[in-house]
């Protein structure tokens, strides 16, 4: 501790300041007037730049708070500061050096400087999240329609031990071997659940050869990515749970969208398909011949589905049952109506060509009316989308423009309650709008 005394006698040192300086390894300096303070402070500044270590031994436990005060003479405590007690490293055990003061470690310079806070955490977590995302995407994308001929070929004379071994080796990829234990566990616990049943139904509609357990593992992986991003943005447990739910539902929404898109394409092709079958019947072909002719000329997915019907019929299933299975698999009310008409006609008799032509016209009129209703209700649907998206968009813009303005909403209890109330109101308004514009045809 360096003390400065301003007196007329330069050799006079106050005893209290002298004791404080000598007792701490410092010194006391005396000046006659304030003109000498500039030179004195410059000299003291150069000396203070040297490193100092203050060691204070006490009986305080490790990591406990210790109040350390500095007193000058009998004047009481002039300054007090709180420190954390730390256990020091032992020295060589000599009486003069029982302890060795720990040296202040200098942190190594990092190769890449990363920002502090949530943004730095996001940069670190981004490679892991992207790795899991792309592995999941590659796993889902690799699944294609089942190759029936390839599966049957291993039991025919064309299959050899080498070809079967190569196919089995191709199936045993690294990703599938890593996911095999998780697939078995999910099949054991949820194999007969309604959720797995819905996934199987949607996979058949979308013509994607993916098992429910595989999609379930993909949902867990994507949920992990979402939770990681929620924590990286600094939203805590609430953000992690929200990211888990949102990202975890992406694979299921992807499968649902693929099934809906394929079913819509099938329904759009249905009137022309019925007209083609009716024309073949009028030309003198049988029903099975008319189906085979239609399969050769129709685009996907109609040709794929009717090809499956003909395959089931060749394997011994009645054509009526195969058509009904196709109607149940596609989930199309228009095609179910056409199949019911065909089954009734094949039971009681009549002109099947005229009936199919009439059903085709009815289906075409229903589709036109459905599209007209959709056009009339599109404004209400867009209002529901805007109602749901606008608060989220404005919140994101304000969060990027003025983070301090959004802090009370994101990091306080009242803000969380307001977010919950706002989310409930938005969802209620969206459901109400969609219920109003949802017209069943």
Which helices and strands, and how do they pair?
Layout: E1 2-6, H1 15-23, E2 27-31, H2 37-48, E3 65-71, E4 77-84, E5 90-94, E6 97-99, H3 118-142, H4 148-153, H5 161-171, H6 174-190, H7 194-206, H8 212-232, H9 236-248, H10 250-282, H11 287-297, H12 302-314, H13 319-330, H14 333-348, H15 352-376, H16 378-401, H17 403-410, H18 413-437
**Number of H- or I-type helical stretches:** 18
Distance between the termini: 91 Å
What kind of assembly state do the chains in view correspond to?
A: single chain
Mean pLDDT: 75
What structural class do the secondary elements suggest? mainly alpha
Radius of gyration: 40 Å
* Net shape: elongated
Low-confidence stretches: 89-102, 142-147, 153-172
Main beta sheet: strand number and arrangement? Answer: 2 strands, parallel
What portion of residues is helical?
55-70%
Question: H/E series, N to C?
Answer: EHEHEEEEHHHHHHHHHHHHHHHH
- Order of strands across the widest beta sheet? 1-2
Strand content: 5-15%
Tally of extended strands?
6
Which short descriptors sum up this protein?
two-stranded parallel ribbon, 441 residues, two-stranded antiparallel ribbon, 67% helix, mainly alpha
